[in-house]
Design goal:
The protein is of the alpha/beta class and 322 residues long. Among the domains are: 53-152, Elongation Factor Tu (Ef-tu), domain 3 (Beta Barrel); 156-278, Rossmann fold, CATH 3.40.50. Helix content is 27%, strand content 26%. It is built from eight helices and 14 strands. Strands 1-14-13-12-9-10-11 form a seven-stranded mixed sheet. It is globular.
């Protein structure tokens, strides 16, 4: 006689966890498809990259930003003075709670404030606490030090004669493009930035945009305004050319998701303007030594392709010509 196994009904928490995993997998697959054939390595710039330094940077500010993020301000005169928009740092996270964090964490430079007679040069980062490494980083106190390497990578650059720009960021991807907003403000380039996130309290960068004179377009999942089709229609309507302020931008810069990069490329094709996209990737060194962060760029199979850390993180983005 056989005995039937008992039927185990998943709990509500288990079902929510499974749904979250499935949603994250779907997003990742959509991003991968969106980037297929989209990005290419930008032509060599006439402006040389700054030489990276290894710095023991003092933690000046370390505080929560909303429910998901933390703001970290580090003292580093050299990096603050030399970092280009869109570059990043590799942060070595100290041991915490018996855990040793082996690999440094890459983080985009959100703001750069060079030294003055009264204050040291600082770089500002914003990050989400999502795993062991960032939980350990969140425990580093004000007054402590962090070993940082940077500035690293190839950042954004405004084409000569640019008069207006559209920047698009989602979540901490906003940090990837905020440096471009700083450069635009210094150059007198009229700038509009799309801040995207799940909820209104997760739209990072509002105060930075206000300080820099950047017009903000908010887009959230809560009200459906972050839907890609809706957002594309909204932006085309916003830049309809009816007034000088509504003239289409001369360049689009984006960071935060592959699907946003494709949206930017579609808008770029519509307006006939260049698009630069900053990509995110897991990195072990950030210097190109480990060859672990391959960029989604089609190359000859016999030749090693470009790397996000060394050839990016900023790439050109254009809709493939079929």
């Amino acid at each position: 006689m056989s005995i039937d196994a008992p039927v185990v009904t998943p709990t509500a928490a288990t079902l929510r966890a499974r749904a979250a995993v499935a949603q994250a997998r779907a997003f990742a697959e959509a991003d991968e498809r969106a980037l297929d054939g989209l990005v290419s390595v930008r032509p060599r710039s006439a402006v040389p990259r700054p030489q990276p330094v290894w710095d023991d940077a003092e933690v000046l500010v370390h505080e929560p930003v909303g429910e998901r993020y933390r703001r970290l301000v580090l003292a580093s005169n050299t990096i603050a003075a030399t970092a280009q928009a869109g570059q990043f740092l590799m942060i070595t996270v100290p041991p915490h709670g018996g855990d040793t964090i082996l690999l440094p964490r890459p983080m985009a430079i959100h703001r750069r404030r060079p030294a003055t007679t009264d204050h040291p040069g600082t770089v500002e980062l914003i990050y989400g606490v999502v795993g062991r490494g960032t939980r350990a980083l969140a425990a580093v106190p004000v007054g402590g030090t962090l070993q940082v390497t940077g500035p690293l990578g190839r950042g954004f650059g405004f084409p000569p004669g640019t008069r207006s720009a559209l920047l698009i960021g989602r979540g901490v991807g906003v940090c990837g493009v905020m440096g471009a907003a700083e450069d635009a403000a210094a150059a007198g380039i009229r700038t509009t930035m799309v801040l995207s996130g799940q909820h209104p309290d997760q739209l990072l960068g509002r105060s930075d945009c206000a300080e820099l004179g950047v017009q903000v377009i908010g887009a959230t999942d809560d009200d459906g305004s972050s839907d890609l089709t809706f957002l594309a229609t909204r932006l085309r309507g916003h830049f309809d050319g009816t007034t000088p302020e509504r003239t289409p931008p001369g360049v689009i810069m984006v960071c935060g998701a592959g699907v946003l990069a494709r949206l930017a490329a579609e808008l770029g094709a519509h307006w006939g303007v260049p698009v630069q996209a900053s990509l995110e990737a897991h990195m072990a060194c950030g210097l190109g030594y480990c060859h672990g962060c391959a960029a989604p760029v089609r190359t000859d199979p016999s030749v090693e392709g470009p790397l996000v850390c060394a050839d990016g993180p900023v790439f050109d983005a254009a809709i493939p010509v079929v």
